[in-house]
Design goal:
Layout (H helix, E strand, L loop, with lengths): L10 E9 L1 H6 L8 E7 L1 E2 L2 E2 L12 H7 L1 H5 L1 H7 L5 E8 L5 E3 L3 H8 L6 E8 L4 E6 L5 H10 L6 E5 L5 E4 L5 E3 L3 E8 L5 E4 L15 H4 L20 E7 L4 E14 L6 E13 L4 E5 L3 E4 L5 E14 L1
Antiparallel strand pairs: 1-2, 2-5, 3-4, 5-12, 6-13, 7-10, 7-12, 8-9, 8-11, 14-15, 15-19, 16-17, 16-18, 16-19
């Protein structure tokens, strides 16, 4: 069997806060004006990604892993997660502010939902003037103070709002209260989980005239009330892979390529590339593939070496 870089049909999610930037900036194709998320690679129940290219086109990712577990996932991934694909990759377009929310850790998510927790990171692809993120508390707080501000609708007064620009990166451990602000487009890398506790939704209502459900009873035990430093400090370099995040669940590098870059890895893990700028050609011994900004590519673990040719910027993710 000749393995090759895999692409998938995007899974589009209409959101009350969504817009058209996924189409305008990332070459996505969809109808509607409120698409907030493009799930690029997913094995979340009822949202399993389907392969869109090559010999495996039409199979979903779980089916392919069942047929070729070691070749796709790699030994390190299987030892840690079995045949479960451990990560979820998204692009998010916040035309309006997202709800203020928090995600539980592995232990709490397992106990309550039989799920992974949701450690994640954001990479800012584009931000309008005054674009911002909400990430954690300004100062250390506690449950009592938090609940008082929640009741008084002054929660935002104790939250840390950070202005952002293209290229900013943030690491959000579970328990970090957060929201993407209006006008910000991000790439998101996270554990395979769809568990979110919504704390505050800016008092807005949907098309049905009703407010969205909040989950404050569940959230209280999940929140980290300490002050946290979430912004990643890094300096990218041409034709060199630079670390953004290393954590128990994923490792993310930024790889800016100009010309021809020979890429090598071991067979112990898959790799995912999210193209944030430019275009590139990926040459293996068996295949030649063309990719552009907005594409997300899964490199099976069995592929150890190939050439990347072009002018591009990639997020490079492994476990």
């Amino acid at each position: 069997m000749k393995f090759y870089p895999l692409t998938f049909e995007p899974i589009y999610k209409e959101r009350i806060w969504g817009g058209t930037k996924l189409k305008d900036f990332l070459n996505k194709s969809f109808d509607g004006n409120q698409i907030g998320e493009s799930w690029e690679i997913s094995t979340v129940a009822n949202d399993v990604s389907v392969i869109s290219n090559g010999e495996f086109a039409g199979l979903n990712l779980n089916e392919l892993i069942e047929k070729y577990p070691t070749e796709i996932l790699g030994t390190k991934c299987i030892e840690k997660y079995g045949l479960e694909f451990p990560l979820l990759f998204k692009f998010l377009d916040a035309k309006e502010d997202l709800s203020i929310q928090v995600h539980p850790n592995d232990e709490l998510a397992k106990l309550r939902h039989n799920s992974f927790g949701k450690t994640e990171m954001w990479y800012v692809l584009q931000a309008d003037e005054n674009g911002r993120l909400v990430v954690g508390f300004k100062n250390k707080t506690n449950e009592k103070e938090y609940l008082k501000h929640l009741e008084n609708k002054t929660l935002v007064h104790i939250l840390n709002e950070i202005p952002v620009k293209k290229g900013d990166a943030f690491f959000l451990e579970t328990g970090t209260v957060h929201a993407i602000g209006a006008g910000v487009l991000v790439a998101e890398i996270q554990q395979t989980s769809d568990i979110t506790y919504r704390l505050y939704d800016w008092d807005r209502v949907g098309a049905n005239g009703k407010s969205r459900e909040l989950h404050n009873d569940l959230a209280v035990a999940a929140i980290n009330y300490e002050k946290t430093d979430t912004k990643v400090q890094y300096r990218s370099k041409s034709n060199e892979s630079v670390s953004l995040v290393e954590c128990p669940f994923f490792n993310t590098n930024i790889l800016k390529i100009s010309g021809d870059y020979n890429w090598k890895k071991s067979k112990d893990t898959f790799t995912v590339f999210m193209c944030t700028e430019g275009n590139f050609t990926l040459m293996t011994t068996n295949s030649k593939s063309e990719f552009k900004k907005g594409d997300t590519v899964l490199i099976p673990a069995i592929l150890e070496e190939f050439d990347i040719i072009g002018e591009t910027s990639l997020l490079e993710i492994t476990i």
